[in-house]
Structure formats: C-alpha cells, structure tokens
Amino acid sequence: MTIIEYEDQYLEDVRDLLVELEEYILSIDQDELDQLHSEYREKMAVLDLEDVKNNNGKCYLAIENDQAVGLIMGTIPPYEKYDYLDYKCPKRGEITELIVTSKIRSRGVGQLLINKMEEYFKSVGCEYVIVDVFAYNPNAIHFYNKKGYHARMITDIKKI
C-alpha cells in the first residue's frame, strides 16, 4: 500500500470511490435527501478536484495493485471578509472527502490517508482541521473521534 498525490491516470478510480461513498450515504440517509444523480459519476470527481486545485488543497490516493482503493481530499478555504468580527480565524484545513473502498476497510488505510492530509495541513501552517461528518454515519463519527476530532457545530434539521 502506498499513498501518493493524485495523478490523472487514477481519475476513473476516483470516480468509482466517490460513487461508492455516495451510495453508502444514500443507504444510511434517514431523511432521504441525498441522491445519486445521473451526472454524479461524470462530474463530481472533476468538481472536487477543481475545488482542491483552487483552494490550495491536496488529493491523496491509497494505491494497491496499481488501483486507487482509498482517497482523501482537503482544501484550505478562505475566510469571509468579516469573519474576524466574531471569530479568531486561525488558519485551518478542511477534509472534504475521505473514502476507503469497502473491500479493504478496517485495514488502517483511512489512518494513513488522514495522517498524510494532516501532515500537509501542518506543513502549510494550518492550526486546525475541520471535517463535516454525516450524522447518520456512526462509523465515521467513531473514526474521527479516535483521531482526536470532536463536534464543534451541530446542524439540526426538521421537515415542515
């Protein structure tokens, strides 16, 4: 298993991984708000990679047998003009995607990917890392808690 920075030759693997993640999210979405649009596979990876490129981010891939079996994407989002009024604004990185194919989950690949992204964020002066975790995904919540992450904001939802 090796961790590399994204290369175009793995675009189809990235697409497969993102579809696998979205299918999983669909399967646990108790609100039934997520969807896998017919254009998702074609467009989502390109949009995510563009976001990485435009926001000083990185995409790392876990490669096994010349195939991407996991990925992590992260960006360094800019602050809004007036964020300083109510927030100290430390530099932070944001993990935007993390997926390990179900075929090899629980073998430490997620740990390797998150460690690599945290190394990158630290190397460019980030003081914090943020990540949005789907509330209906207890496995992900547990994974991030084990890595020292904790909830800072909670978004509530109600159908009216």
Explain how this protein is built:
By secondary structure, the protein is an alpha+beta fold. The chain has one domain (about 1-145): Aminopeptidase (3-Layer(aba) Sandwich). It has helices spanning about 10-30, 40-55, 110-125, 140-145; strands at about 1-5, 60-65, 65-75, 90-100, 130. Helix 1 (about 10-30) packs across helix 2 (about 40-55). The longest helix is centred in the N-terminal third of the chain and has 18 residues, at about 10-30. It starts with a strand and ends in a 14-residue tail after the last helix.
Layout of helices and strands, plus pairs?
Layout: E1 2-5, H1 11-28, H2 40-54, E2 58-64, E3 67-75, E4 92-100, H3 109-123, E5 128-131, H4 138-146
Parallel strand pairs: 4-5
Antiparallel strand pairs: 1-2, 2-3, 3-4
Helix pairs in contact: 1-2
Task: Return the CATH architecture.
Answer: 3-Layer(aba) Sandwich
Shape: globular
Number of helices: 4
Report how far the terminal alpha carbons are from each other: 48 Å
Instruction: Give the structural class.
Output: alpha+beta
Strand content: 15-25%
Using only CA atoms, what is the Rg? 16 Å
User: Remind me, CATH topology?
Assistant: Aminopeptidase
Strand order of the largest sheet: 1-2-3-4-5
On the 0 to 100 scale, the average pLDDT is: 94
Number of domains: 1
Helix content: 25-40%
Low-confidence stretches: none
Q: Give the beta-strand count.
A: 5
H/E element sequence? EHHEEEHEH
